[in-house]
Amino acid sequence: MSRQLKTVCVYCASSNHIERSYLDAAAALGRELAQHDITIVYGGSSLGAMGALADGGLEAGGRVVGVMPQFMVELEWSHRGLTELRLVEDMHQRKTAMMVDADGIVALPGGSGTFEELLEALALKRLGLYFGPIVLANLQGYYDPLVEQFRRAVEGRFMDQRHVDAWTVVTRIEDVLPALRDTPDWDANARSFAQVRADEDASGATRPL
Description:
Layout lengths: L6 E5 L8 H16 L3 E4 L5 H12 L4 E6 H5 L9 E5 L2 H9 L4 E4 L4 H15 L7 E4 L6 H12 L12 E3 L5 H7 L27
Parallel strand pairs: 1-2, 1-5, 2-3, 3-4, 5-6, 6-7
Helix pairs in contact: 1-2
């Protein structure tokens, strides 16, 4: 049965210099979420894919909530038309506030900020501190190197084989919402395999000591 989604957190770029296709994809995701009455929570910027996401959601009549540290507002980076702009003290609080009530997380292509947010969300899921779906929108193969790095981490036993189920990769915006809804629930016992144990083989199966 499909998961009910009320709020989705989206990580994406604030650069105005990325390819137009990435901006269009962000706007399309904003419209898609809004059309399904899903609140969008994101970083609050009016710039780049972040601004396009917010504009798409707002134009479709959706609720768009930005979360931004005060210093970014002072730099006039905030979107002025949001349904709500939540101010926080720093970047750490921003990340926490963005995902605390999220029924799912989407990572669009982005830079170091997006990578940081995505990897922290995955780390929290690995530790059983977040249980919602995490979807990588691998547009134009943008996340191929990262997905390959995850594969190498599993092969090298830096991560458990079961951790590959912590994220879902899609290649089209229209596949994001189905992935959020249909990804299986994360294992409630995630902490039991958060650390690769010495008594497991490379596949995650227990072997005799």
